[in-house]
Amino acid sequence: MNWAGGGADDDAPSGRFASARVAALLLVFAALVFSTAAVPAFADDTATPAAPAVRRPAPGTTQGLPAARAAPHQGAIASAYPLASEAGQEVLAQGGNAFDAAVAVSAALAVVEPTSSGLGGGGFYLLHRQIDGVDIMLDAREKAPAAASRDMYLDKAGNPIDRASTDGPLAAAIPGEPAAFDHLARRFGRLPLKVDLAPAIRLARRGFPLYARVQGAIRYKRDELLKSPETARVFLTPSGGVPELGALIKQPELAATLEAIATEGARGFYGGRVARDLVDGVRAGGGLWTLADLAAYKVIERKPLVGEYRGARIVSAAPPSSGGVAVIDALNILSGYDLKGAVAATRHHWEIEAMRRAYRDRALYLGDPDFVKMPLPQIISQDYAAGQRTSIRPDKAMPSDMLPGIESERVGMDTTHFSVLDADGNRVAATLSINLFFGSGYMAPKTGVLLNDTMDDFSVKPGTPNVFGLVGNAANAIAPNKRALSSMTPTFVETRKGLMILGTPGGGYIISMVLLGALDYLDGLSAAEVVKTPRFHHQYLPDVVEYESGAFTDTEISRLQAMGHTLKEGSRRWGNMQVITWDYATGKVEAASDPRGEGEGLVY
Ligand code: DON
């Protein structure tokens, strides 16, 4: 089986496209037209500090928000599929807290939403522990294997090998999700891991009825899935066809792997029989994993990024996610404008210009904080935002070519987000992924584990876009044991009146969705309104505002075009946002699942 080769004629997500722009020309041009205040020369002084975690400010201190509230007395879960929300609810009903529920929901999603996340992938868990007000980002991002190297996906001529970083086991980084289960349950949960994982084990063993989204993904990726006999056996009919809606998808090997984790903790995955089967399978398929890679995997507790926007506290994902940096960067820029008082087209113009600049910073500066120095304090500072604003004209779009930098992104295909609030006020926002639909498509024999293709989130070659059109630079180059830069943005928005827990899948579009979701909530929209509001997106390059039907009125479209924005209505809607809100005054808790998906928000 030649995984690196891939088929030129198959129909998987668009491969690499268009070469990078001529950066040197841009830089010269930009240097002529762009305010130097907006592109400060950053000192090399960052890296996200690891724990200690962030404590919520005491009453009356800096951000003026009240300290930990009384408990909401109601719990809520919003996730991408009802069976997963129900798995979380089951664990809460047994006396578990939000962190136990997070394990139960993640594990159930690994079973019933295998397109999007799973034991073979990773992600970020944003945690708030109510008893001491501590906020933590649990970094369960996949890591490059030790044998990975900067040019591993390039041919002899230095060109990216088609699909080498997206298809088959060579595309897979060392998973983080199983280690997160163990860590969450042991360090934060109330119940044994065995109890937290029980609903997922049951779902894997008894099967779940195939539903439209997963069936659609199977149809879309069928040719890829056929290349891995184990994947084909689980998700296709014996003749290689797409199963009917309602067909029971049973995953006994996955149930056994979950059971190994339930009884042995992380060791049940990163050591022993499962680890041997994973490494044997990966190596037989041309991948690089070793037993030592698995044994060495550790989740990391990091300090979340915290920003302030018009009195609200924004707590979000820190690097190796770019999400919190970009959202806070954009909100800082927007804090200089009267969004509420502006006509809609002007407001959208400012939002688009803020997105343009935040996405540019993402592309230029960010990577794994354990490997690269980043100018984080500067990027999320108000002074930097003031500099950025000097380049924004009130009546005119600024072409992205005028901002020095690099290329573009495309819409993501899958990933998952869920939000949890328990009756004590503990909360979790978790965005998890195996990257593309069904990850690398490869399932290691005897494990039931679909491996990720997160290696594609690295910059495979400077200036060459990944599958989302993302271009990176040296900060996100492949290196042994490094974590690839992510856009996943689990976020809390806290005000004097209440809070929101949110996040969504969507590749590079995640950041703009979370930004708009935060602004909508701060404007007073309910959870149900936030998840359904039509979205728009600008990511610096390509220099286009993509919008969902209904995002702009005809008048707004004309006005934005007159300012010089290029608008394009997206061919499909994007995102699968899962939101929980809690209103302190009324005690009301709401959970809402994006109507673009098939999820469920539960309050009980
Ligand atoms: O970490 C990232 O940014 C990507 N692996 C996320 C992929 C994604 O959201 C695909 N989905 N819609």
Contiguous helical run count: 18
Helix and strand content put the structural class at alpha+beta
- Number of beta-strand segments: 21
> Helix proportion of residues, in percent?
25-40%
Distance between the termini: 50 Å
Summed over residues and divided by their number, the pLDDT gives a mean of 87
Q: Specify Rg, calculated over alpha carbons.
A: 22 Å
* Distinct small-molecule ligands in the complex: 6-diazenyl-5-OXO-L-norleucine
Low-confidence stretches: 1-52, 57-63, 406-413
Largest sheet: 8 strands, antiparallel
**What is the percentage of strand-forming residues?**
5-15%
Shape: globular
Helix-strand blueprint:
Layout: H1 23-33, E1 54-55, E2 76-79, H2 82-93, H3 98-112, E3 122-129, E4 134-140, H4 177-188, H5 193-206, E5 208-209, H6 212-225, H7 229-235, E6 248-249, H8 252-264, H9 267-270, H10 272-284, H11 291-296, E7 300-302, E8 305-309, E9 312-316, H12 323-334, H13 344-365, H14 376-379, H15 382-389, E10 416-421, E11 427-433, E12 443-444, E13 449-450, E14 491-494, E15 498-502, H16 510-522, H17 527-532, E16 536-537, E17 545-547, H18 554-562, E18 567-569, E19 578-583, E20 589-593, E21 600-603
The chain binds 6-diazenyl-5-OXO-L-norleucine.
Description:
By secondary structure, this protein is an alpha+beta fold. The chain is built from 18 helices and 21 strands. The chain has helices at residues 23-33, 82-93, 98-112, 177-188, 193-206, 212-225, 229-235, 252-264, 267-270, 272-284, 291-296, 323-334, 344-365, 376-379, 382-389, 510-522, 527-532, 554-562, and strands at residues 54-55, 76-79, 122-129, 134-140, 208-209, 248-249, 300-302, 305-309, 312-316, 416-421, 427-433, 443-444, 449-450, 491-494, 498-502, 536-537, 545-547, 567-569, 578-583, 589-593, 600-603. The strands form 5 sheets. Strands 1, 2, 3, 4, 7, 10, 11 and 21 form an 8-stranded antiparallel beta sheet that branches. Strands 8-9-14-15-19-20 form a 6-stranded antiparallel beta sheet. A hairpin with a 2-residue loop joins β8 (305-309) and β9 (312-316). α2 (82-93) runs antiparallel to α5 (193-206), α5 (193-206) runs antiparallel to α8 and α12 (323-334) crosses α16 (510-522). It is globular. The protein starts with 22 loop residues before the first helix and ends with a strand. The relative contact order is 0.18. Mean pLDDT is 87; it is low at 1-52, 57-63 and 406-413. The chain binds 6-diazenyl-5-OXO-L-norleucine (DON).
